[in-house]
What does this fold into?
Amino acid sequence: MTTEIFRNIFRFIVLILLQVLIIQNINLSGYIILLPYVLAIIILPFETNRLIVLFASFLLGVCIDYFYNSSGLHAAACTILGFSRYYVLKYVAPREGYDIGVKPIIDDMGLEWFIRYAGTLIIIHHFFLFYLEIFRFSDFFSTLLRVILSSLGTFGFIYLIQFLLFSNKRRA
Amino acid sequence: MKNLLAFVVKHNFIFIFLVLQVLCILLMVNRNGYQGSHVINSSNEVVANVYQTAANTREYFALKQENDRLAIENAALRNLLKSNYSAIPLAEYKKNDTLYKQQYSYVAAKVVNSSVNKRRNFLTLNIGSNMGISRDMAVMTSNGIVGIVTDVSNNFSTVMSLLHKDVRVNCQLKRDGSYGPLIWDGKDYRYCLLTDIPTHAKIGKGDTVITSELSGIFPEGIIVGTIESFERRINESFYTATVLLSANLKKVNHVYVIKNKHKGERDSLETKTQKQIDD
It folds into this structure.
């Protein structure tokens, strides 16, 4: 249990550094912004207390804000993410509930489940992030395009990261 | 009261969420464009040191281009050397000395962090108030303008780049001096928009755009870029021109911060006049 907590904290820090030192510099287009740091919240274990998830999301957002020079923006979007995670998990739960010991990753839950779960959360996060960032409705559709394309990009990136982090368990 | 408390405790998840959300929104609203000082920014020492380490590593990869650029600049400066000019009898020019007073001075700085892919892009520089940097100073490279200083800590400063949704720098056409604000539409980091150019202005593709004294921040005549295309939008009586920025904001490494010695005086005078008009 303790190792699991430390593993999550370590992952949290690594994802922040990955985001601000490397991914921040990847410039595909103005419409595709990769934000895979949300993975830190998405793959917290199922049984994590929802209040801890909420505070962890807020903290993650504030850390990213410090590096991105965007006071409060990422914190707001992440807090919404942490809040909605509880309801999304309820909504996508299998009929017999979640088994003890499984994690919300592709290897344990299957790709289809992960697309529904992580996809929803990423779209929620990106939607609030980009609309709060622009803070006006005049660019409604171009912002919507950014939300959609960035969500696809982030999901793709998270998919790849999962293969790197967890691939050796099942297949070995 | 007891019922209310019980209600709050029962729904503590939602209430804590709302409190955090209000906190975030307060942080966001407080920043208020580039006038307000930001509570959370990357001139914070810890964050800036992380960026400094990353930038030191990254600098090695750009050494070649940077050397080339510096060599070109050196050559240009060498052309200005005194030995290149034939001497003019000193007596003739002595009187003119009092006509010129240095208004702008330049401080070299290194960029430790920058971005081009957000709607609000910033740069972090490795000099701060210890080098006399303060808010609203202009920042340029040898190729063109880069942005405006927004926040300063002891050893670092953050710069709002031209690629920021709130930035408005007054620029003019070099050819006939018509001016308008330069803004960024968020689409491409290489292009900005020069708006409000009157339709009688002589404007053409490839025209040079330079800074205007009207901006109050940049010295007049620093190159901004060249006009890529221009159009008159429906229902507007002005031209909007797309400007290809001459500074490559994605690869900016070494910059100059411009100190304006008269800025304080000019600002206080203008504020005073504005106040008299308002009263």
In short: Chain A touches chain B through 38 residues (CB under 8 Å). The two ends of chain A are 23 Å apart (CA to CA). Chain A has a mean pLDDT of 87. The domain at 2-170 of chain A is CATH 1.10.1760 (Arp2/3 complex 21 kDa subunit ARPC3).
